[in-house]
Amino acid sequence: MSNIARVMLDTARHHPERVAMIARHGSSWRQHTFGELLDRTGAYAEFLRREGIRPGERVMLMVRPSPEFICLAFALFALGAVVILIDPGMGYRNLLACIGAVKPATLIAIPRAQLFSRLFRRPFASVRRRLCVGRGLGLLGVELPAQPPAAQLTVAPSQDTDLAAIIFTTGSTGPPKGVRYEQRIFNAQLAMIRDHYRIGPGQVDQPAFPLFALFSLALGATAVIPDMDPTRPAKVNPAKFIRTINEYQVSYSFGSPAIWRVIARHCQERGLRLPSLKKVLMAGAPVPGELISRLAAILPEEAEIHVPYGATEALPIVSITGREVTGETWALTRQGQGVCLGRALPGIELRVIAMSDGHLAGERAVTPLPPGEVGEIVVRGPVVTAAYDHNESENWLAKIPVHDTLWHRMGDLGYLDESGRLWFCGRKAHRVTTRDGELYTICCEAIFNAHPLVARSALVGVGERGGQRSVLIVEPKGRVPDRERLFAELRELAKRHRHTAGIGDFMIHESFPVDIRHNAKIFREKLAVWAAGRLSLNV
Length: 539
Description:
Elements: H1 4-14, E1 19-25, E2 28-33, H2 34-50, E3 58-62, H3 67-79, E4 82-85, H4 92-102, E5 106-109, H5 111-119, E6 129-132, E7 142-143, E8 163-168, E9 178-182, H6 183-197, E10 204-205, H7 211-218, E11 222-224, H8 238-247, E12 252-255, H9 257-270, E13 279-282, H10 289-296, E14 304-311, E15 314-321, H11 322-334, E16 339-344, E17 349-353, E18 375-380, H12 392-398, E19 399-402, E20 405-416, E21 422-427, E22 432-434, E23 437-439, H13 441-449, E24 454-462, E25 469-476, H14 483-495, E26 505-508, H15 524-537
Parallel strand pairs: 1-11, 3-4, 3-5, 4-8, 5-6, 6-7, 10-11, 12-13, 13-14, 25-26
Antiparallel strand pairs: 1-2, 8-9, 14-15, 15-16, 16-21, 17-18, 18-20, 19-20, 20-21, 22-23, 24-25
């Protein structure tokens, strides 16, 4: 294995004339070849080296998706620096806490982010070098030259275990955590994406998640940077997203269910299709079978829809096709049996073990449960990261040492069926523990999501674990003319199934809070606080 920058370097040297990236510049769009990106990456790398950036140095990159972002990222990888990536939309409090924890030595950022670092000095106290991507007027650090002198890109030697990046989790079930990405992780992910999803040269990607553009270029594909705010995927302008898919003959795209829900609705309302799009990957939250069917209807007949499963700490580890969901598993999901995630990818070891909230260690801790029994999902394999950065308490809880390897606890609950497929029942932190037993969010919510007035639902627990009061909160599809009638119908639905029969409290929340990265994961913690307040007021 090698420095991740070498993969892109090899592609650019062998095929400098190929189009690597298409991105917006003002009111027009511009194509960049691999040769052009290589030249700019080499120039940036030499400029950064002269500015004093050395192997192992922590560099926070706060630049919008663009050729500059791509070239700076690869330049930093080539220098052997540690690239720190944080979603800017996670909120000021979380953002500042993450920056303070990871302790960057250098900040490469657009003027707005540089100004932000000056206003909130304490979390940025470790920063000793500022480089501004844009006009800083001499006040926001050394300006990155628009056309730095040409220089040949030299890739620093690296080991598999050298730290390449720190990427933060979404924080959907707690404070965001910085995940340590070693060189081996990036290389293993590239191999997995290339081999399983058959992505490589000659294909055109439109990634709704900026990091995926790095993978596309490293695999020799073309990346079209969509005209959208990546921190608000559910607010994507569908007309703009579709226009670049059709204009540049995009052949595959990765995005959250929130994006594809908007795109599918827009196309169906206007009778549009996406004839070039042969492959779609959806991840970030459970994907409803109805969405897969709607999306398939606007794609070519031979198109593939894939739903990979994983987390920032381990991605991808399991995958299922859209055809298997709609043809086999979705009917069972609607009956409350969980969401089928598919089978483990090559090289991945997957187990479901007895649930625990404490530290686990040793072979006995990862004893697999029988098929059909719900427990914790744990995984080990080449794409599984070894640790969080500067966070031993979370490492102690999330990693299970067994001999000379580590299992990662996904924080999810599920079970394996007789054929080895993994089924997801909900986050461990979201389970509701009542006096009569435990309730799993995904299994319970599926029953109520079948109601024609329900857009989605969220099961939360109010009170202390072991004696929680189960509350089912509904986000309606539109105005609800008679709330009491809706609640009565939901209670009837609950009584028809053993695992939902004890749910008696129902509430309406007009718009669920969701995660920043995918706009799809429901913040059940916030809804639980809201529900507790409503119950205390007896509303």
